[in-house]
Design brief:
10-stranded mixed beta sheet; 2 helices; about 45% strand; DUF4360; Secreted protein; signal
Length: about 260
């Protein structure tokens, strides 16, 4: 009989325990396995439509938006939020100021949730118009921060890079689900829960000549829930003479906590 040390016995016991759970030991987990495990956890989450008592107040600020020129609208079932901009536009070319190459918008959503409920963000769809000359590219970046979330310090984000020459006419520039849904703190029916979303659009040169010209940006960004509910039918924005009107739609998923 072969004698096993206490360390070997502990390792064997842990391996057998993991095998019983049909998962590999932690030290053997690959990136793909971790992602699959997170997806499985999300699949186990019981989601629902917006509960009675859910409300939201909005504000916006940045070089591409302000509360006075940004319109917020919740869908009738309160599972999606549409944000319409009138100044979220980027341009580049002869005679255009450098400040027009980057626009940002910081949106604060102050929500009230009934006791025992939380909400999260699970899917993004971006539509837009671009006219990108050679040597110019469009860069999009968004971050979504749920303040006082159960797991602090985690932020959802998405990014997109489109090099020129290219033209998109009301096209889907990006769509996809987050690998793992981050949820807000649990509501108590009274306390406001703050959520901060930021959208950035940049026109950047891809070569050293600095001569690229064009205009680019987002027409719409749609955030949908993991239940696959359809998005509301929103009118597209237009780009004329390098001026872009933009729209962002956030769709939320809810769960009991």
């Amino acid at each position: 009989m072969v004698a096993l040390s206490s360390t070997a016995l502990a390792t064997l016991g842990f391996a057998l325990f993991c095998k019983a759970l049909s998962i590999p030991p932690v030290k053997e987990w690959s990136t793909e396995q971790v992602a699959a495990r997170l997806a499985a956890i999300d699949d186990d989450i019981s989601t629902a439509a917006a509960p009675d008592g859910f409300s939201m107040a909005f504000s916006a600020r940045g070089t591409g938006c302000s509360s006075s020129n940004t319109v917020f609208a919740l869908s009738p079932d309160k599972t999606s939020l549409t944000v319409r901009f009138s100044n979220m536009k980027v341009q580049s070319g002869a005679g255009i100021p450098a400040d027009d190459r980057l626009k940002t918008c910081e949106m604060t959503l102050n929500t009230v949730l009934p006791r025992g409920w939380s909400f999260g963000l699970s899917r993004v769809e971006t539509r837009g118009f671009t006219t990108l000359g050679r040597g110019l590219a469009l860069s999009l970046y968004g971050t979504y921060d749920f303040k006082n979330a159960p797991v602090p310090g985690l932020i959802q984000s998405r990014s997109l890079y489109l090099p020129g020459p290219a033209t998109h006419n009301d096209a889907t520039l990006f769509q996809g689900s987050f690998d793992s849904i981050l949820f807000s703190a649990c509501g108590d029916g009274n306390r406001s829960i703050s959520v901060e979303f930021e959208e950035n659009v940049r026109a950047q040169f891809t070569d050293s000549s600095g001569t690229g010209a064009g205009s680019a940006g987002v027409d719409s960004v749609s955030y949908s829930d993991s239940c696959g509910r359809s998005l509301a039918d929103f009118l597209p924005s237009i780009i004329t003479g390098g001026i872009m009107k933009t729209k962002v739609t956030f769709t939320f998923v809810f769960r009991q906590c």
